[in-house]
Amino acid sequence: MAWLIGILLFVSHVLGIITAVIALMSSRTSQGAVAWIVTLVSFPYIAVPIFWTLGRPRFYGYVSARGERDTVLRQVLQRYRGQMESYISRPEAVSGRIRAVEQLAMMPMTRGNRVDLLIDGDATFDSLFSGIRQAEEYILVQFFIVRADEIGMAMKRLLIDQAEHGVSVYFLFDEIGSRGLPGGYLRDLEEAGVRVSAFNSSRGWRHRFQINFRNHRKIVVVDGKLGWTGGLNVADEYLGRVARYGHWRDTHLALRGPSVLALQEAFWEDWYWATGDILALGWRPHHQESDDQHVAIVPSGPADGRETASLLVQHAIHGARNRLWVTSPYFVPDHGVQDALILAALRGVDVRVLMPERPDHLLVFLSAFAFLPEMIQNGVKIYRYQPGFLHQKTLLVDDHTAMVGTVNLDNRSFRLNFEVTAFVPDKRFAANVHAMLEQDFINSREVTERELAERPMWRKMLSRATYLLSPVQ
């Protein structure tokens, strides 16, 4: 028996060393690489299965799927992007900072769009349901969380009704975020003719351990003409109907114009990964001449060759000269973003970060307090929203640019989640976001350096300990 135990221990340590080499070559941060290597070599029998479940830095299956479908899908994309030429933003219409955004998005910025700011759940679902009722050809629906509660059932009835009237409906959800969704909900959709699929992050035996990745995108597209994205999922708490959270503060966008096709392309790729099917959709741009706002849609995720979401946020911060206001329910940014915020404050920018007062993910919430004292000492102002739970993901740069999307300022959104952001360099839109955030700051309180210094030692230690876990939170 002893010899068997010896063999198992030997094999475990060999696997630990092999996996440590993989972690060394693939980890996206030096801190993450060191942590994994030490753990894998010291405790391989525990660390090896955890690494292959939680520690993989890239969504390799999605990367290979992109290669598999390049020939067919790229032919379609080339045709549609060929039609986009007259709607691509000209260099003189936008500043030079836009080139980096387009490179990160791997999509062009387009003009001829209309962007409507949707504040909180009632405005969002009124707009969303109204748009779905206008569908004539197809509806694309993708959410991280869908529940079979009041608003979820209303969504189901609306999609079934449209499917029964001959509209093609595609419904994509994340199986982890929507893990409580009953099978009957999905069967009702399928029986009515709705095409339904989980995102299937662990699809196929080679990728069965990729359970730590999530598809956090919220996308709805109607006929390639109307699109929505932002912070809201399909659940009653997003309308403030759950007592635990109280008032739910969130922001969404309604889009018209060529930018809708970029949202459609993000859904299209996700659907291909999940099902292997290439959807036949309309790809003709619909120009909004009267509004003519510039928009770049920036999908990001663990299949990217670069850290798209983190780089986009850093790029926006470095471009600020007077004002940089950020809202995020989960604020545990990487060191690059932390340093960029501090540098902006040091050069005199009004840097404000708005977080919730009430947490819904305790570990992430506690982690932020490990580095907030340093940020406040360097001039970054931290606010906590008072009336309820704050869930919006927005960023305002000076008086000319705003971003709204699904990206939280934490490691999960930067490296583990599939996300999408609307980058809008438009003064009218920025003014609307400015007015919205001014009201949010009125409903918030500023965190002081003294308040953080007077916390009990056990809370300070707990914050530091939870911060060490931020790469997998």
From TrEMBL:
<keyword id="KW-0472">Membrane</keyword>
<comment type="function">
    <text>Catalyzes the reversible phosphatidyl group transfer from one phosphatidylglycerol molecule to another to form cardiolipin (CL) (diphosphatidylglycerol) and glycerol.</text>
</comment>
<feature type="active site">
    <location>
        <position position="393"/>
    </location>
</feature>
<keyword id="KW-1208">Phospholipid metabolism</keyword>
<dbReference type="InterPro" id="IPR030840">
    <property type="entry name" value="CL_synthase_A"/>
</dbReference>
<dbReference type="InterPro" id="IPR022924">
    <property type="entry name" value="Cardiolipin_synthase"/>
</dbReference>
<feature type="active site">
    <location>
        <position position="218"/>
    </location>
</feature>
<feature type="active site">
    <location>
        <position position="223"/>
    </location>
</feature>
<keyword id="KW-1133">Transmembrane helix</keyword>
<dbReference type="InterPro" id="IPR025202">
    <property type="entry name" value="PLD-like_dom"/>
</dbReference>
<comment type="similarity">
    <text>Belongs to the phospholipase D family. Cardiolipin synthase subfamily. ClsA sub-subfamily.</text>
</comment>
<feature type="active site">
    <location>
        <position position="216"/>
    </location>
</feature>
<keyword id="KW-0677">Repeat</keyword>
<feature type="transmembrane region" description="Helical">
    <location>
        <begin position="33"/>
        <end position="54"/>
    </location>
</feature>
<keyword id="KW-0444">Lipid biosynthesis</keyword>
<feature type="domain" description="PLD phosphodiesterase">
    <location>
        <begin position="211"/>
        <end position="238"/>
    </location>
</feature>
<dbReference type="Pfam" id="PF13091">
    <property type="entry name" value="PLDc_2"/>
</dbReference>
<keyword id="KW-0443">Lipid metabolism</keyword>
<keyword id="KW-0594">Phospholipid biosynthesis</keyword>
<dbReference type="InterPro" id="IPR001736">
    <property type="entry name" value="PLipase_D/transphosphatidylase"/>
</dbReference>
<feature type="domain" description="PLD phosphodiesterase">
    <location>
        <begin position="386"/>
        <end position="413"/>
    </location>
</feature>
<feature type="active site">
    <location>
        <position position="398"/>
    </location>
</feature>
<keyword id="KW-0808">Transferase</keyword>
<keyword id="KW-0812">Transmembrane</keyword>
<protein>
    <recommendedName>
        <fullName>Cardiolipin synthase A</fullName>
        <ecNumber>2.7.8.-</ecNumber>
    </recommendedName>
</protein>
<feature type="active site">
    <location>
        <position position="391"/>
    </location>
</feature>
<keyword id="KW-1003">Cell membrane</keyword>
